[in-house]
Specification:
LRAT domain-containing protein, about 270 residues, alpha+beta, endopeptidase fold (from Nostoc punctiforme)
Length: about 270
């Protein structure tokens, strides 16, 4: 368990683990669920969406890598109108290092990890349940990508815990999103208290305290506005529904079944 994040070796990863890798010099991280056989299921924007943000950048990397993947013939499998994609571990990581998201951490450890999106107080469900959720969502989708309400970390957190917000959509359960909002919000909310703080160090301490408090109360393991939803019922819950054609879904399910297990083209 690292203080800032939890770097691991490939040999340590097990099916059902929530993994991630840092992008753009630690500006943000991309998350997914390791399902075994050097394969990862993760969430990004749908194929047809054009955008200039980081999620589209990830999609571009996936498309480019999957067409030239030397490891798996079906790397980059993604249904039309779905942002859930199956890739090999090599293509998921790109040139980045491998990290494992931590579950069930004590509050003191959670607060000590100043960077959001690396751990949660919530407990993980059994690994076989996690993999089943990820594979179901590969066949049925996870709705529309949203940087603050439904991103790759939200996808992985749901697969691990089955928890989703039950109130009106607002901010998702992602620790990265909470941090992105929490830093400026903490600076704003702490302004009235800065008149009592002596000097820059005191002001920084007040702001950091507000930020940590905000991260804690928005963690999925602490929030009261989340509930466990079965993956089969997720499409009708809180706007996760995607436009579906019954026949196309049936065909898609057959395609996914053929993907497991994937055969390696060569051993490294």
């Amino acid at each position: 368990m690292g203080l800032l994040s939890n770097r691991v070796e490939r040999s340590e990863v097990r099916p059902g683990d929530h993994i991630y890798t840092w992008r753009a010099v630690y500006a943000y991280s991309h998350h997914g669920i390791y399902v075994g056989g050097s394969k990862v299921v993760h969430f990004t924007r749908k194929k047809e969406v054009e955008s200039s943000d980081s999620s589209n950048f990830i999609s571009g990397l996936i498309s480019q890598a999957s067409s030239e993947c030397p490891t798996f013939p079906d790397c980059g499998f993604q249904l039309a109108d779905s942002g859930v994609v199956l890739t090999c571990l090599d293509c998921f990581l790109g040139n980045g290092s491998l990290y494992c998201f931590e579950y069930g951490v004590p509050p003191a450890i959670f607060l000590a990890k100043f960077r959001g999106g690396t751990c949660t107080i919530a407990q993980s469900d059994p690994s076989e349940v996690v993999v089943r959720r990820a594979m179901h969502l590969l066949q049925n989708g996870f709705g529309n990508y949203d940087m603050f309400e439904k991103n790759c970390e939200d996808f992985a957190l749901y697969c691990k815990t089955g928890l989703v917000p039950v109130d009106e959509p607002g901010i998702g359960v992602s620790g990265q999103a909470s941090s992105a909002i929490g830093v400026p919000l903490a600076a704003l909310l702490s302004t009235p208290f800065k008149i009592f703080a002596a000097g820059p160090l005191g002001m920084a301490t007040v702001t950091a305290g507000m930020y940590c408090a905000g991260r804690y109360i928005t963690d999925i393991g602490v929030r009261k506005d989340v509930a466990k939803v079965e993956v089969e019922n997720l499409s009708s819950h809180l706007g996760f529904r995607r436009v579906e054609d019954t026949e196309s879904v049936n065909r898609s399910s057959d395609k996914v079944k053929k993907l497991l297990p994937l055969k390696r083209k060569r051993e490294r």
